[in-house]
Amino acid sequence: MTDLPARLLLNLAPWRNATTWRIAFSSGLDSTVLLHLLAHLANTQALPALSAIHIHHCLQAAADAWPQHCQSVCDALGVPLQVVHVQVQPGASLERAARDARYGAFVEATQTNEVLLTAQHRDDQAETLLFRLMRGAGVRGLAGMPRERALGRGHLLRPLLDVSRAELEAYAAEHQLHWIEDPSNQDCQFSRNYLRHQVLPVMLERWPQAVTTMARSATHLGEARELLDELAQIDLASARTVSEFDWLGVPSLELAALTGLSAARQRNALSHWLAALTQLPDSDHWSGWENLRDAAPDARPIWRLARGELQRAGGRIWWVTGSWLRPATAAVAWSDPSQPLVLPDNGVLSFSGQIADGPLQIRYRQGGEVMAVGDRGHRDLKRLLNERSVPGFVRGRLPLLYRGAQLLGVANLRDLSGNEQDGWHLHWAPLSEDQGLS
Questions:
Q1: Alpha-carbon gap, residue 432 to 413, rounded angstroms
Q2: Which of 103, 234, 243, 257 could make a disulfide contact with 238, Cβ separation 3.0–4.6 Å?
Q3: pLDDT-based confidence at 434, cuts 50/70/90?
């Protein structure tokens, strides 16, 4: 039998300095073998602290007994266990909803310098390749499950991807391990089960090495994905130019740097950029990007995606989400301008220099505002914002400083945020926690 413990240690060698190795323990064959391997290696090797986590999806009555089984196994191996109950949201795909709930719990559990270990193996990788092929996935999808990736504040590792299911079964038999077979794994209404029980056996009759060769293809595609990621970084570096609105904390790219690329490179760069911000559309739903890219210069096109939208303004595209999609409306009195003013759902305001005479109030655009601008006399605020190319999503949240009916200043905008003669300026720090940035 292949020296499975030695192979596992070799695959985990780069992560020996982690503080914790946490095993995702479902109670099935694969995770039972992984847990047993690591627990026994810890007796002779200096490994990070081991622990296990079991996710209870609350989807079937049989699963209520699984946490106790997991606890018994972990107690026998001397490994601490955490049981997490999750709520699976209803949707078109129960498989996907359960996975989202499970990985949400994993993200919460994985701290800095910790590693979550999952037990997917070579057969799982082949099933993933077939499953995604049937969904029309591109190179990123067909690369299958990555061996490692960021997760929460730590990392997720799959150290058994080069191990077959047959090898795991042989190890379990040799060590007389006991595990639980999930009844739902036999239900072929789930796509992965259908592939496992109905499709792969037929393929293996004709091509006995099909699993191995498909896993090899996934590896080749993984290398292609890495090359595409490197190309995306090169293209995005050209598009991440400085904007005078960087203080907003809103992700943006220079449009001209993208439109100078081929259509395929545009999609590749945008996919790489958007992956950290939202769920990506499939290849049939990129017309939104084309419409936004090709709209007339004076248009305000929007491409709506799962967690926000892309907008175009000032020669850039902006990722707009959270509070930026809501105009601020409530006026706020500023009774003590010597102190910063916390605006409801809209950041913090402060003065620098000689504070303007009160009583002062913060309002937001309603339309028709007029402001005195130096020697230019009174000017329509809309025109002033147009002159400064202020993005549309910002305009409804820009704090306006009023004294009575007089508009004194517009926070942060050059030549509008204060009074040089009186020596004061209005500074605004917008909210940033819902922008997906630090």
A1: 19
A2: 257
A3: very low
Residue 2: its pLDDT value, please? 58
Look at residue 289 and tell me if it is in a domain.
yes
76 lies in the same domain as 218: yes
Judgement on whether residues 60 and 201 belong to the same structural domain of the protein:
yes
Find, among 38, 52, 54, 11, the residue nearest to 160 by Cα: 11
Q: Would the pLDDT of 374 be above 80?
A: no
Report in angstroms the alpha-carbon separations of 341 from 107, 247, 332, 348, 357: 35, 18, 9, 6, 16
Greatest mean pLDDT range, 93-97, 133-137, 340-344:
340-344
Name residue 400's beta-bridge partners: 363, 410
Of 382 and 97, the one with more pLDDT: 382
- Model confidence at 435, in pLDDT bands (50, 70, 90)? very low
The pTM (predicted TM-score) of the whole model is 0.78
Are 316 and 414 within one domain?
no
> 76 and 52 in one domain?
yes
Beta partners for residue 426, in sequence order: 351
- CA dist 436 and 250 (Å) reads 9
Range of the domain at 347: 332-435
What is the spatial distance between Cα 273 and Cα 269, in angstroms, rounded to a whole number?
A: 6
Q: Are residues 37 and 121 in the same domain?
A: yes
**Residue 74: closest CA among 20, 14, 27, 125:** 27
Burial class (CB in 10 A: 0-12, 13-18, 19+), 150: exposed
Candidates 320, 316, 308, 322; CA nearest to 278 is 308
Q: Which pLDDT value is given to residue 233?
A: 96
Sheet strands (E) in 217-272: 252-254
